[in-house]
Amino acid sequence: MREVIAIANQKGGVGKTTTAVNLAASLAKEDRRVLLIDADPQANATTSLGFSRNEYEFNIFHVMIGAKKLSQIILKSEVENLYLAPSNIGLVGIEKEYYKKGEKRELMLKEALKETEEEYDYVIIDSPPTLGPMTINALSAAHSVIIPIQCEFFALEGLAQLLNTIRLIRKTINPSLKIKGFLPTMFSRQNNLSKQVLADLTHHFNDQLFKDKETQAYIVIPRNVKLAESPSFGKPVIEYDKNSTSSLAYQTLAKIILDSAYG
Ligand code: ATP
Ligand code: MG
pLDDT tens digits, residue range 82-98? Predict the structure, then answer.
């Protein structure tokens, strides 16, 4: 396994799932074997790839509690090289299990991933909009984290809390956890608020924004209707409209990830 990347931000609706699904698909299209882990009981990553939430008896919850191995729940998606560990609403039960478990409860996902280490070049984890057990497990299992930031009012609200959580996880369970980058999402060029959020981000986190290697332009995900539509067809945008602005942005991001040797 080359790299485990968590997509996290406890703020809701900022583009975590969209980023997880489309980055995973873009990496798969670059001939890497990719496992997308749906770590959210909302199961939006699962449905975005065209799978039904309730069709499968076993999902990531059963892996977390040790009832199934990860390899027993993995589904092959319609995109070549892209595999999914599905979720469903039953994953809310993890809260109870987590507080019951005590020791090593932050490492349940990391343990589960060991078994498939040789099989995938990338593992992308879509986290829920909380700083609860699944996000903690995702950050504990990951080499790095991508933080999508929606280019809207209140974009940076709650970020300090997320950064504190990352610091705490580094101090305790996962010292080498890196922030791979902040990713501005739903960016509109015509919108002054979008520009303001990007300016704030560059001011605070300049080094940690993704940049195009050649042009040094910041990578932003544009607001694009194709991206919002594609999940209803059960497809990542690269399969739905390969040359749309948002698809091209995720393809560029994937190339940057491929170039940034981890370690
Ligand atoms: P949650 O916190 O509920 O898990 P999330 O952070 O995973 O949400 P998404 O589900 O990825 O956020 O996105 C929220 C909504 O915004 C979705 O309807 C999605 O299709 C839409 N969306 C995301 N990114 C874009 C974009 N760049 N352009 C247009 N729509 C987008
Ligand atoms: Mg989501």
Answer: 999 999 999 999 999 99
